[in-house]
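Let's practice the habit of predicting before peeking. Look at the sequence and jot down your guess about where helices and strands might fall. Then scroll down.
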Amino acid sequence: MKYNRILLKLSGESLAAGKGQGIDTERLQAYARQIKEIADAGVQIGIVIGGGNIFRGLSGAAKGFDRVKGDQMGMLATVINSLALSSALEAEGQPARVLTAIDMHPIGEHYSKWRAIEAMKQGKVAIISCGTGNPFFTTDTGSALRAVEIEADVMLKGTRVDGVYTADPEKDPTATRFSEISYDEVLSRGLKVMDLTATALCKENGMPIYVFNMDIPGNLARMMNGEEIGTLVHP
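Done guessing? Here is the structure:
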């Protein structure tokens, strides 16, 4: 496969499969099968999942929640999604370990780089929850941080869109997809690949990002086998 160790970022909304909220079990199982497929090929996998299908701190703050408490609620939402994914993976026969940036024993082990790497070397999927463990940071930034920390070869962003476009393809039918693009161009064009903090962190540490549509079964393996089905964002 193209990469030996990856950090896969999944959005919480994707787990809802268009229902807006909650966890769609069919989508969850489909993700688990895709992840197991590349794990069986020997790829070491770390995963970060958002919590937007349950609660999003920023939108909560806009409705009157204290921002810090809202973000903490969002962190807990990522733990729920992480536990769901670990359960789905284990049902497929793929061992997984949930790590939490906030001490939350016995729900998950307290995250450290070395625990995550140890789990991956043992053939387990390391699911890293609670974002960075701090308010005012998105799970995009948490993903970028974890990708750098665990020394991943690439950060994969599995979304419902098949890459980075010149404009929002859902709003602009003339938008075209990039096969690859630099961080500088992403920033200068104002493209919303990730938030600015996450993009800057990846740029500063030379961490490439590959954006692809995870909702199509088999796409994760296709991407790992070198098929150009998305957009590579590189230094």
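How did you do? The chain has one domain: 5-234.
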